[in-house]
Specification:
about 0% strand, mainly alpha, 16 helices, globular
C-alpha cells in the first residue's frame, strides 16, 4: 500500500509542476509580455494576430502528433521515456523565454510553440499512466486529485509571479519586463523539480511487444489508422468523445477568450489577473468536491452538473457589465472547471481497452486540441457579425447544450463492457 501511495503522489506532483506552464505562460503573463515587449513595433492588430497564429499552429501540431505518439508509446512500452522527452522540451522552452527581448516576436512564437508541444505532448503519456496507478473505483478520486494538485501548484507559482510583477523592486528587479522574464524561467525550474518523483518512482508496466519490421513512426501511423477503423466497435466511447469534443470546445473557449472579453467591456489587466487567481484557488477544493460527488451519484451525473453550471455561466457572461460581475464569473468557473476536466478524463479512462491506454489517450488529446479551434472561431465570427462580443459569448451555448444531450446518451457500464470485450475476446459479457 505504501508503494502504491508513493506512486500516486509522484503522479500527482507532476501535475503540480507542469500546470505552471498553463497558468503563467499560456494564460496570464506571456500573452501580455508578447503584446507589450516581444511584438513591440508591430501594429496592434498584427501583434494580436501573430499571437493567435502561434497558438493555432501549436494546437494543430499537438493534435496531429498526439495519437501517433500514443500508438508508438503503447507498442514500445515507452510512455515514461516519451513523457521525459516532452517534459524537458517544455521546461527548456520555458527557461529560454527569459531571453526574449523587444521585437523578438518570432523567437517568442517559436518558444511558445515548442513549449506547448512539450506540455501537451507530455500530458498524453502522463494521462496514460492514470489507469495503471489507479485501482478501479479509485480512478475518479485520483483523477480529480491530479487536477486539484495542478490548481494548487500552478496557482501558487502564478501568485508568486504576479507578486514579482506588481512589486518587482522587492525582488531587486528594475521593471515588469525583467520580472516577466524571470517568471518564465521559474516555470521551467518549478516543472523540473516536481517531475523528479514521477521519473524516479513510477515504473512502466512491462510488456513484450511483437517483433517489428517497420520503424516506430510507420507503426504509429498504422496503429492510428487501425484505431480510426476500430473505434466504431466502442460505440459508447465514441458517443462520449463526440460529447466531450463539443462541451470541451465551450470550456476551452471560455478559458482562452475570457481575458479578451473582459478587456472588451473595460476591465483592467490587474483585475483580469486577479480573477484568474480566484478561478485557480476556488478550483482546488471544488475539484476534490466533485471527486466526492462522483462517488455518491456516479461520475457521469457529477459531470452533467458541471455542464449545467456552464450553461448558467455563459448566460451570466452575456449580461455582466462590471469587474464585480467578472469576479463572480471567475468564482463560478473555478467551482466547476476542474471537476469537468477531471471527471471527463476518468470516465474516458474507464471505457478504453486496457492494452491501448496511450493510443486511446492520444485520441482524447486530439479531441481536446481540435476542440480549441472551433469555439474561438465561432466567438470571433459571431462577435464580428453582430458587432458585439456578448453575442459571441452566448453562441457558446450551442456547444454545451449539444454536449449535454450526447452525454445523456452514454451508457458508461456498457462502455466498460465493450472495452473489456475487446481486450479479452474470450470474456463472456452480456450487454443490454
Amino acid at each position: 500500500m505504501g508503494v502504491k501511495n508513493k506512486r500516486v503522489r509522484s503522479w500527482l506532483l507532476y501535475d503540480w509542476g507542469n500546470s505552471a506552464f498553463a497558468t503563467t505562460i499560456m494564460a496570464a503573463i506571456l500573452p501580455v509580455f508578447y503584446y507589450d515587449v516581444a511584438a513591440k513595433g508591430l501594429p496592434e492588430s498584427t501583434a494580436a494576430s501573430y499571437w493567435g497564429y502561434s497558438q493555432s499552429l501549436a494546437v494543430l501540431l499537438v493534435a496531429v502528433m498526439a495519437p501517433i505518439l500514443g500508438a508508438i508509446s503503447d507498442y514500445s512500452a515507452a510512455k515514461k521515456q516519451f513523457l521525459r522527452f516532452f517534459a524537458f522540451m517544455g521546461m527548456i522552452a520555458s527557461v529560454l523565454l527569459a531571453f526574449v527581448g523587444e521585437g523578438d516576436y518570432l523567437f517568442a512564437s517559436i518558444l511558445l510553440i515548442v513549449g506547448t508541444i512539450g506540455f501537451s505532448g507530455g500530458n498524453v503519456f502522463y494521462d496514460a499512466f492514470l489507469p495503471e496507478i489507479a485501482e478501479g473505483d479509485n480512478i475518479d478520486s485520483i483523477s480529480t486529485r491530479g487536477f486539484a494538485y495542478g490548481y494548487i501548484g500552478g496557482g501558487l507559482l502564478l501568485a508568486i509571479n504576479v507578486l514579482m510583477l506588481l512589486k518587482h523592486d522587492w525582488f531587486g528587479m528594475p521593471d515588469q519586463a525583467v520580472a516577466s522574464r524571470v517568471s518564465f524561467a521559474t516555470v521551467g525550474v518549478w516543472w523540473f523539480i516536481f517531475s523528479i518523483p514521477l521519473f524516479r518512482n513510477i515504473r512502466e508496466e512491462k510488456k513484450h511487444p511483437p517483433q517489428r519490421n517497420d520503424s516506430y513512426a510507420m507503426i504509429g501511423f498504422k496503429r492510428v489508422a487501425s484505431t480510426f477503423k476500430d473505434i466504431k466497435q466502442y460505440r459508447q466511447l465514441l458517443i462520449f468523445l463526440l460529447a466531450f469534443w463539443l462541451y470541451n470546445d465551450g470550456i476551452s473557449t471560455i478559458i482562452k477568450m475570457a481575458t479578451i472579453y473582459g478587456k472588451d467591456i473595460g476591465i483592467d489587466t490587474n483585475s483580469l489577473i486577479t480573477a484568474l487567481l480566484i478561478t485557480q484557488f476556488i478550483g482546488i477544493p471544488s475539484t476534490f468536491l466533485f471527486g466526492w460527488i462522483a462517488g455518491k451519484v456516479t461520475a457521469k451525473k457529477a459531470l452533467l452538473i458541471t455542464l449545467y453550471a456552464y450553461v448558467a455561466i455563459v448566460i451570466l457572461g452575456f449580461f455582466m457589465v462590471s469587474a464585480i460581475h467578472f469576479y463572480l464569473l471567475a468564482i463560478c468557473v473555478g467551482l466547476v472547471q476542474g471537476g469537468a476536466q477531471a471527471l471527463s478524463r476518468s470516465l474516458y479512462g474507464r471505457m478504453i481497452p486496457g492494452d491501448r491506454h496511450a493510443e486511446f489517450f492520444g485520441f482524447y488529446g486530439i479531441s481536446s486540441k481540435f476542440a480549441a479551434v472551433f469555439g474561438p472561431f465561432l466567438f470571433g465570427f459571431v462577435g464580428q457579425l453582430t458587432g458585439s462580443s456578448r453575442f459571441g459569448i452566448i453562441s457558446l451555448l450551442i456547444f454545451f447544450i449539444a454536449g449535454i444531450v450526447l452525454l445523456n446518451m452514454v451508457n458508461v457500464e456498457k462502455g466498460i463492457q465493450e472495452a473489456n470485450r475487446q481486450t479479452n475476446p474470450d470474456l463472456k459479457v452480456e450487454v443490454h
